[in-house]
Amino acid sequence: MHIDIDFEVYKALTARRLNEVHSYNDVLREILGLDSLQEHETEPLLANVADALSRPYGLTGFYSRGIHLPDGTLLRARYKQQEYGGKIEGGRWLDNSGQEHSSASAAATAITGTNVNGLRFWEAKRPMDGGWRRLELLRQL
After folding, report:
1. Rounded CA separation 46/38 (Å)
2. Confidence (pLDDT) at 48
3. Is residue 136, in this structure, part of any structural domain at all?
4. pLDDT: which is higher, 66 or 86
5. Which residue stretches of 2-140 are H helix?
6. Which of 35, 102, 127, 140 could form a disulfide with 39 if both were Cys (CB 3.0 to 4.6 A apart)?
7. Which residues pair with 125 in a beta bridge?
8. N-term to C-term CA, the chain
C-alpha cells in the first residue's frame, strides 16, 4: 500500500516518531486515536517478532507500544472509587488475581468492560522509580 503525502506532512510525522522502532503507522494510529495493532492481536505472530526485535538487548520485562516495564514493576489504577493492581512478572502483565493481559488497554478493559486507553488508565512504579507514573508519561521519556 502506498499513500502520497507532501514533504511538510512527512516532516511532521517524522518529528512525532519516538524512536526508529516507532513506525509512521504507529504515529498515524495515535493521531487518529486508534489502538495499536498489538492490542487487537490481529497478527500475534508478527507482533511478537516485532516486539522481540524492538527490545533492548539483554533486558527482560513487558514491552508494549514503546514502553518497557521491567520485571518487578507494580501497577495500579482507580476505577469507580476502587483501586486495582497488578505486576510485571516473567515478562507478563498479571493482575492481582493472576490473570495475564496482553496490553495495558486489555487489562483496563477487563476492569471497565469498555474500550479504554490503558496508557492513561494505569500507573506504574518500576523498581528504579521513587513514585508512581502514568504509563503515557513513561512513553514520552
Report:
1. 9
2. 52
3. yes
4. 86
5. 7-16, 24-31, 37-40, 44-54, 104-112, 118-121, 135-140
6. 35
7. 74
8. 32
| C-alpha cell at position 29 | 494510529
Rounded CA separation 46/37 (Å): 10
CA atoms within 13 A on the CB side of 35: 20
| More reliable by pLDDT, 6 or 87 | 87
- Alpha-carbon distance of 109 to 67, in angstroms, equals 19
Q: Which three cell numbers stand for residue 82?
A: 476502587
Contact yes or no for 64/38 (Cβ under 8 A):
yes
Q: Which helix (H) or strand (E) holds 99?
A: none
The whole-model pTM stands at: 0.59
Using one digit for the tens of pLDDT, what is the confidence trace for 102-134?
A: 999 999 999 999 998 999 999 999 999 889 999
Total domains in the chain come to 1
**How distant, in Å, are the alpha carbons of 7, 13, 25 from that of 65?**
26, 17, 12
129 within domain boundaries: yes
Structural domain boundaries, residue 73: 59-140
